[in-house]
Amino acid sequence: MYVYPWDIDAKAKAKYLKKLKKPEDLPQLVRTVQTLYHNSFKVPFMFAFAILGCAAALVLGCLAVRVVRHLRSSPSSKRSGAVRKHFVDAPLLGSRHAEPLTLVPGIGKEARPIISLAVPLRSHTTVLFVLALLNFLPLVACYSPTSVKDNYYYKTMFLQIIKYFGDRTAVLAVAQLPLVILLSGRNSPVRTLTGISFDVVMLYHRHVARWVVVQVVLHAIAYSLNEAVKDGHEGYIETMNKPYVKFGTAALVFVVAMVVQSLRVLRQKAYEVFVAVHIVFAALVLAGVWWHIALLANTRYALFFDLLWLAIGAWVFDRVARVFLLVALNTNLRMAAGVPFLSRASVSLVEDSNASLLHVRVFPSGATLGRALDGSSVMLHLPTVQAFVSHPFSVMAGGTDETGRRFLDLAVRPQAGMTRRLHERAINGAFECVALLEGPYSGDEMDLGGFEHVLLVTGGIGITHTLPIFTKEMRTPSSKTDAEKPAAQRTVEMVWCAKSASTFAVALDTLEREVASARASGSTHTRAKITLCVTSQSDSRRSSTLSEKKSSSDEEKGAAPFDSPVLEGGLPLDSIPQLLSRQTPEESAGDAARVRVRFAALAPEVQVLWSEGKPDVGAEIAQRGEAGSTLAIVACGPPALLDAARAGARGVGAVYEEAAYGW
């Protein structure tokens, strides 16, 4: 028979009857035990079940919305647009969301903040408020203690309340462990069912985990006070030396260490180390909690073990799913001819990028489909570069090379850890290595087919997310979307900001392939436009000077300058090498000038404009919004850029989606 923690079973009765000193005290003892079980277990478990029930309802609700969106591909109505503008896409206060709020600044002029907090959207805040309410209420309300004279054990109201309080924190902490782990895994069923982005799931994961930490710390404090007041110093020391308390203390230490180790500044400093240590600490916390409860040897605690089994099962599921994906995506189990048994990657510097960017082309040996992963997030393991770590990247492009091998292109800006090691090796020349992929791990993509104008706001290496969208919309045929507005009016436009013009080189190979394909097909596609904004003044002046020198040199030779109608009107892609070969040695060192030549050759299929300085993103969006066409905006880049794009989109009532640089 299953016994709940609040049930008084035969063993519980026998245990308490042993402590009965006088038979006439039996009614008092029964009332005391009933009150204890109700306050310590039944009340907090009701709130714990409410938390888990709300989480399940949220998953089902998101699944329902996902199905509706799949069935209805048309742009949202005015009513749903107002909900998105004022609730779904609106930051809690002001316009700040992607850029974290600094709570404790770093030491030094440009140091990262020691403690920062991401400001949630109003829709996310609603969920977090319910979570906070259900965690907070059982700590301060719903107590029904007995009077001091009627309590058999606790002769002061303080001891009675602190006992109930300590038990409630334990219940709430253990009950939320499965939820914490379900929200942490990249292969979590929550993400699979809801299609929610990894960043949003991580937001919920962090807040649930923080409440677990709060409950664990309060549990330790409450029980320490209870033992110290009830039994004095000697009794307190004796209790602290019991094995079950030592295991609980170990779990407390590791769970607090996880909080410290999860600070944004530490995650950014060494992401791979953070992930590895986080996994190890999580396993130690589960082990500590398990033995902390098991050594109490109480049959009424079966529900605690059920919750722990759920947490362990979620963790094991994610590990097994990751292993399955690694095998399925990266091993040639079919023994296909000409395909290596393990996936491999070629790593090289991006041409014309001033050696600042890396091009990683992965050749998967397993079941990965090229374009099916474009724009998705994947985890990349490079065991011969840095073992036992993986790093998240966005797939910039996919396809088949000239030898017929399927590939996925990743663009990498070296920072620290694995990416720094990659750059150090690539500086000495291109190389190949074993590469293991996991994924894709992105949320549902917005259906942009029903929008007349698609604007992609991009910052730096964020092009890895927006470039696949741009090329996909470029390939959209010119056919009527409805009876009144033909798709020939559709425009896909990208505003791309980078400190250096050489950064733009990372997209050129993909764009040149798309333009070549469009010219070969000869069909009319969606109008495409790119505005390239060089935000560094020194780089702008340098590239402009080189361009002017190139123009003067070409004019002397009878060739067209960079901004001539010949280049903007359409330049054969096979003429680029001849143009570049005309550069003087001084000009050949200017990667920015070479990038301008290659972009100019994309016309007329892609109209390319250049700009200097940071663009006014809000004004750019407002200008598109005034055109009166249905507008969708997708942004990926630094936090400040995303916040500006979100504010601009809300200002014109555009549908908005973003992919943040998450840590």
From TrEMBL:
PROSITE patterns: FAD_FR (PS51384). SUPFAM superfamilies: Ferredoxin reductase-like, C-terminal NADP-linked domain. The chain crosses the membrane at residues 45-68, 127-148, 168-187, 208-225, 245-266, 273-293. One of its GO terms (molecular function) is ferric-chelate reductase activity. Gene3D superfamilies: Nucleotide-binding domain of ferredoxin-NADP reductase (FNR) module. It is found in: Membrane. GO terms for biological process: copper ion import; intracellular iron ion homeostasis; iron ion transport. Belongs to the ferric reductase (FRE) family. This is FAD-binding FR-type domain-containing protein. It comes from Tilletiopsis washingtonensis.
